[in-house]
Amino acid sequence: MRTFGVEEELLLVDPGSGAAVPMAGQVMDLYARSDLSGIAPEAGVRAVALTHEFVQEQIETATAVHTTLHGLAEDILAGRARADFLARQVGARAIALGTAPLPAELHTVRLPRFEAIRNQLGLTAVQQLTCACHVHVGIRSPEEGVAVLDRIRVWLPALAALSANSPFWDGTDTGYASFRTQLWGRWPTTGPTEIFGSADAYRRLVRDLLATGVLLDEGMVYFDARLSRTYPTVEIRVSDVCLNAKDAVLIAALTRALVETAARQWRSGRPPPVMPAPLLKLAAWQASRHGIEAELLHPLDARPYPAEDVIGLLLDHTLPALADVGDDAWAEDLLRDLLRRGNGSRQQRNAYRDTRSFTGVVAEALKHTGTG
């Protein structure tokens, strides 16, 4: 059973106005000295870590390493509860939105690396308040990891469509289901990659990128999916943070199954699907624009198909791996529920339709962030 874990970036907001607030420093100070005796006594809560992100208006949670979906689901909920509990102590709330609906003046966390990135990237960094969900899945070797990256790349737009949760930004409806993808895409190394073919080819590209001097370090290699620099994992980075915690569980389950399926194909000698990166970029754009509300591009021929058909292909592709670890029924139920009620983007737009205000959108989203 492959290990996996999830990192979620959460927005810190004023509970009255819904505007993003620069409270991460205060939250992290509390985190450093809190025993959390008043929160989440269930097993595993203390394994959920909080860390700074790029700006003071957000915080990141990180689950422990898990082998079961049930344990991971508990940690995702515990991480959200932990962040929100501490945020409440300083007059804020932690919320799972991919972008801030209301205008915000951002404050870079005062760490030398973050300030250097801001100096290097200018306005792109100044406007960087986006919240993603990153899934780490265990691999047995770098060669297996790169083989996985080569075989999952065509399926990543479908994951992004499912997770889309950022239609509003800076006080406007962007027209996108995931505007986070558009903002994040301005960074130098984001997006899909071509097929690598070997771990040596992967490392060679990373060395060439660093040699340009544009990147400060390897941490700025922001491919849609990459080898982790720290852990024996592949890190899949295309998803918005999900409004509903159970959608994050679904994304994690599908991601682990994608990795296992790809590894099996590699071991059996099956080559990766051939899809040029420019077509994958269009597939990612389509997923960002419409989420699951219109058409997505087929993962094998890049032609438009109804979104539910492409999502169905993703489920069929991963079902054997899901079944082998007992996640199939749970994943099918979670997917059915998501398609019925809509992803975070649809729920946010429904909230705006009902309240006619972005403050109302945030208030409604707060009700969903901590629920299972």
UniProtKB/TrEMBL annotation:
It is an enzyme of class 6 (ligase). It catalyses: L-cysteine + L-glutamate + ATP = gamma-L-glutamyl-L-cysteine + ADP + phosphate + H(+). Its EC number is 6.3.2.2. InterPro entries: GCL_type2/YbdK_subfam, GCS2, Gln_synth/guanido_kin_cat_dom, YbdK. GO terms for biological process: modified amino acid biosynthetic process. GO terms for molecular function: ATP binding; glutamate-cysteine ligase activity. Keywords: ATP-binding, Ligase, Nucleotide-binding. Transmembrane segments: none annotated. ATP-dependent carboxylate-amine ligase which exhibits weak glutamate--cysteine ligase activity. PANTHER family: GLUTAMATE--CYSTEINE LIGASE 2-RELATED (PTHR36510:SF1). HAMAP family: Glu_cys_ligase_2. Belongs to the glutamate--cysteine ligase type 2 family. YbdK subfamily. This is Putative glutamate--cysteine ligase 2. It comes from Crystallibacter crystallopoietes.
